[in-house]
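[job 0417] fold request received: MaoC/PaaZ C-terminal domain-containing protein
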Amino acid sequence: MADATVIELDRLPAIVPTYLRAALTFSGGLGPDATIPDIECRVPGVSIDPDLLQRYAEVCGFPPDSNDVPITLPHVLAFPVHMAVLTHREFPLKLLGLVHVRNRITQHRAPAVGEALDLAVRVGGHRDVHNGIEFDMETVMADASGNTVWDSTSTMLSRGGGKGRRSGRGDKSPPAVPEQGRYGRWEAPADIGRRYAGVAGDVNPIHLSALSAKLFGFPRAIAHGMWLKARAAAEMQADLPDGAHTLEVAFKRPVLLPGSVMLKYDPGESGIDFALIKPDSDTVHMVGSVRRA
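[job 0417] inference complete; emitting structure tokens
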């Protein structure tokens, strides 16, 4: 990223101003032969505090009063930086309307509570797909020695046209629904979007209430995709590898709130394949995999 726009921050940015910028952005898109420019945002010395860990564990179903940092929690720490990049003046697409279609997290080792980590978030380039364009948002957290502790790739979809340079790992989805395995079932209550938003900061209106979701074409509020991923990880916690591993998902159909969901997962020697489905239905909400890294 030799010609990247680099944003250096000394602390995590506030989220509310980024949502205000997004709400006041009425146009956006890529012109002919254009692509998303390279943008990188860096924040040194971020850390997970015990209060965030406890609140996140409670809303996502991880064991209470544990000092173990869930593999999905650092995404919450990075979210304000994601927003800063996606609402930067050089970023050409509208934030409202972007769809999170895939997410891949690799935990090289579990970060400790209170450990200072250097955070970097990057975008640049895009891929043409049948229903618009995709781009990858890369997030890396490194320790004081410069070793990567945690990284993720969030693949976003912007509906519409455009042709540009390829970037990232391409249009690759995790495995389909396992044919056999274990089951876990839970309820997604009507207020889970507001509860998760209170912890994660993701106050997208489609998650908060039926009234605000209807403004964007949904009959009811929908669950956050990253809450579904975290809740699935909590359900499979006993089967997750102890060492470095990758947790990857593709988001398929939204979960309307309130709603019931069923997790089907198949632990094996090569890892875990899993799917989140609607009970007594063919509807698939999310598919994913866990593999040793």
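[job 0417] notes: The helical segments are 16-23, 50-60, 73-86, 192-200, 210-214, 225-235. Residues 164-170 have pLDDT under 50 and may be disordered.
[job 0417] exit 0
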